[in-house]
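stage 2 :: seqdesign
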């Protein structure tokens, strides 16, 4: 059974959120109409809306009784996993913090969001920072490629303020 991600996004449209890491090789071009089975979406939110968005997310459980739904709460936020026979079908990851970034940065990136295909994403200068940090810990090639292909959107001041400028230059110039 297909999850209705379009409806979920419509349900949270009035909240302060952004989807990050959507532009990846595994994400279908027609997302959210379709979604990558076995993967997740990362939704960055402001902390004061955490309980409300968590409650909205938990309402999905009743709509999909044929999945084993697992809720995981930790210091980063909340994950709702839809599983079938102990295999991940899809996960919604609600994030209130991002390691290495101050809360003011998260708020600014959400405040200056842009609407794409019916959902909000950060401006490229902010997405570039998220990808840079994701690459630093996970070394996934698509994060590196995103940084390299979108280097022209980088805010040098922002990178220097966050002490990421040297790492950015290293990634930008790498083969």
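stage 2 :: out
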């Amino acid at each position: 059974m297909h999850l209705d991600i379009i409806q979920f996004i419509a349900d949270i449209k009035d909240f302060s959120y952004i989807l990050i890491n959507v532009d990846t090789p595994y994400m279908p071009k027609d997302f959210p109409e379709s979604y990558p089975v076995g993967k997740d979406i990362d939704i960055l939110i402001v902390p004061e809306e955490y309980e409300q968005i968590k409650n909205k997310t938990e309402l999905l459980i009743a709509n999909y009784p044929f999945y084993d739904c697992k809720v995981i709460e930790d210091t980063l936020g909340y994950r709702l996993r839809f599983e079938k026979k102990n295999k991940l079908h899809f996960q919604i990851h609600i994030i209130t913090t991002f390691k290495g970034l101050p809360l003011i940065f998260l708020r600014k990136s959400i405040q200056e969001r842009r609407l794409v295909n019916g959902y909000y994403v950060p401006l490229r200068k902010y997405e570039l920072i998220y990808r840079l940090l994701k690459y630093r810990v996970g070394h996934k090639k698509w994060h590196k490629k995103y940084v390299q292909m979108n280097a022209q959107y980088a805010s040098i001041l922002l990178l220097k303020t966050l002490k990421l400028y040297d790492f950015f230059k290293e990634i930008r110039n790498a083969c």
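stage 3 :: structure notes
- The chain has two domains: 1-122, 123-175.
- The mean pLDDT is 94.
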